[in-house]
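Predicting holo structure, 2-(butylsulfanyl)adenosine bound.
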Amino acid sequence: MTKQPKNNRQASARLDELYELIEEANRRYYQEDSPTISDAEYDRFFRELEALESENPELARSDSPTKKVGAKPSETFQPVPHREPMLSLANAFSEEEFLQFDQRCRKLLEERAKELTYIVEEKFDGLAVEIVYEHGELTTASTRGDGEVGENITANIRTISSIPNKLSKKGLSKLGGPERLEVRGEVYMSLDGFKALNDRRLAAAEPAFANPRNAAAGSLRQLDPAVTARRPLEFVAYGLTSPSELPIGTQAECIRVLSNLGFQIDPQLLEKADSEAVLNHFLALAEKRHDLPYEIDGIVAKVNSFELQQVLGTRSRTPRWAVAVKFKPEEAFTVLNDISVQVGRTGVLTPVAELEPVEVGGVTVSRATLHNQDEIDRKDIRIGDTVVVRRQGDVIPAVVAVIENKRSGDEKKFKLPDTCPVCGSDVGKESAEDVGVRCLNPRCPAKLHERLKHFVGRRAMDIDSLGSKLLEALAESGRVSSFADLYDLKQEELASMERMGEKSAANIVEAIESSKDVALARFLFALGIRHVGERTAQLLAEHAGSLEVLRSMGEEELEKISDIGPKVAASIKTFFDDPQEQAVINELLRRGVSPKAVEQNSNGAFAGETVVLTGSLSSLTRDEAKSLIEKAGGKISSSVGKSTTLLVAGEKAGSKLEKAEKQGIAVIDEQTLLQRLNG
Ligand code: IVH
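Done. Tokens:
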């Protein structure tokens, strides 16, 4: 946060800066649908402005962005005055801030506080619209605009199939057949729709939308409704104006009425919630949000009773009876300082974005993958660009789009080199299907280093005391030129290497020694055969039963294994036919590495079970739990499906737990897991 200015002059100057910044951001966001700062930055500036104004009320402008909503409607659309202002929502960025909101409500409600319950809705990430129905027929639809006057988008709204042109007669008569109804809700784009639209745009050499919200806003605010009609827009209704004139008393009833009238409503409402239930729901949705087919950026908690809402009233731009509890933003804007090139295990050259460090979803991101040259060209990413970086769940951060209107003209286009940045050999495509290019030198030290890192990995040979730096040094010095060389390493020579002590050298030698006794599946995975991940390695091990059998299998035989297609079969065959790979495997075996298929333990505590793990365990890592369950005869699967027989739910288990419960699958906790493993 920027330092607080000390005197009046400084405060006034900073206020002017913030006014300008926020107004410009509002204009870009609401009128041009192409923001130039991230939501997180915007929220920070807005908070700073609020704080500064409350400390210096005499300096606050009467038309400050803290007192109004959105931006002036654009003149390209006809103005539509809202009979009732369309307000915004106050934000809570933490659980504490929500509890402060709850306390404020209780204080204002005095003795009526005991009647207070909340209804919790999802906060859809789209744009607010108002749709007016007269005698049950859609007559006008408008955007929020500045809250008082919106933009007429009636023709565009009519193209959205989930918005009824006529309201259900039954629904209307239940409401006493009102002459005029004003429905409010959010127009948004589903993730599938967004992806399909962007694919279409990129194929037509049009710039992609940075996110579904921009895509929805850009699609709705089109002059030609035929364009809107081709965009996959959806609508969810969450409110009616002047509800006190209707025979309903709560927001929960309002939503039911909207559903009866023919609108889509929030599929995950939580009713009758106290503050604790609100926060629990918030946490559950925070975990589940990536499984949803649309984007939400938080939840909205609303005081359920309209009577209590009226007691609480509204401020100039936000009601006192509702609050948006926001998730940590997963997208941020930052500058792409440079693009470096990494050479992977299979020699693929991957362009990596070197970013101005920026916080995304609670962690600092300074590098992100750019995938390959095609991707860079499609998105027209240039060095020096301001880009949108996205981090979702545990996924590696990626650059999703460029903010073109931030370009100065000095940005530089990027082209992957024609030679390997590590060994200088030629690069090229190995087969027509290759998306990226590879270093064609089989002895490229970068490939070796990456392959060694993979080989010693925890899920492979599990010699993770051999760190990346050490492997790099061993590969570069030529001391280790294949997996087999690892098994010749002596304690003394390791101890003499830089930053190594006797103790760690001894640990490494011991870890190398004990890795010799290895499960066949792990060994196959460790070899780094192209297209053979952990699951395929497991399938191969189960099917072949031994390394000898697998080495002698032909492509046709391999293809008979379910889930193994021609591409994977060919890659396995090529690998085992390669004289160099054969020599390494033979050397490994000669040095005592002895891969064995783990027998299916049909008497084990988990025999016959297909187990899914979710949430966090306190006494075991996921990998440990997995391998113990497998040793006890169980199969591990990553998602809850038809074959799942048991779910192990750790702390903060989310959607998988819900799904398992829905499907009637048995669920056990960590303690029961341990008991069964030990018993
Ligand atoms: S209620 C006075 N409910 O969030 C209450 N808004 O930041 C105003 N939004 O302008 C809106 N989901 O565009 C409400 N379930 C929901 C919402 C929602 C998304 C949007 C809406 C609003 C903005 C405020």
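The pocket of 2-(butylsulfanyl)adenosine is lined by residues 87-89, 121, 123-124, 127-128, 144, 186, 238-239, 300, 319, 322, 324 (CB under 6 Å).
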